[in-house]
Fold this sequence. Notes:
Elements: E1 2-5, E2 12-15, E3 19-21, E4 24-26, H1 32-38, E5 46-53, E6 57-63, E7 71-77, E8 79-86, E9 97-103, E10 109-112, E11 116-122, E12 126-133, E13 142-144, H2 167-170
Amino acid sequence: MKIYKSPLPDVYIIEPKIFHDERGYFFESYNAHDFESTLSKIEFVQDNEACSQYGVLRGLHYQIEPFAQSRLVRVVQGCVLDVAVDIRVNSPNFKRYHAIELSVENKKQLFIPKGFAHGYVVLSESAVLLYKVDHYYSRDHERGIRYDDLDLHIDWKIESKAVKLSEKDAGLPDLKNAELFIESVS
């Protein structure tokens, strides 16, 4: 398993070592030892799965303290553009984002730490996304930012008329009106 930094510090791209033969393939999608030796000790407590059709955009979501979540995201069907946005007000990378295509073909994963908003849009006919989180879901601590916030300038790789949002996501605030992370950044 290769774990390397994305252009956005603290966000990591994980590429598994895939073993192919005439029967198919095998790979470790998560190995605590490899993860901890490169990143840090993290205890995932919940696995989530979402299935969506082309153009569905989910995000940008996060949870505030004390229920902030780190996420390890991968795609097991289709292809998505996955986006992590630094929303730590004191970070030198505040408002910067990293976008990467995650697909069943490339088998890449994205690690998104606490203090980052997360979203994705489905680029294939449909997609199934799996992700691990290190804190349980809390409706009272759930927050979000509009996907098309002008301060972020995210290129979602599809036309805006093709974007399909939930009612909740369509009503998310702009970054300047969102509750963000204020704690110090290392």
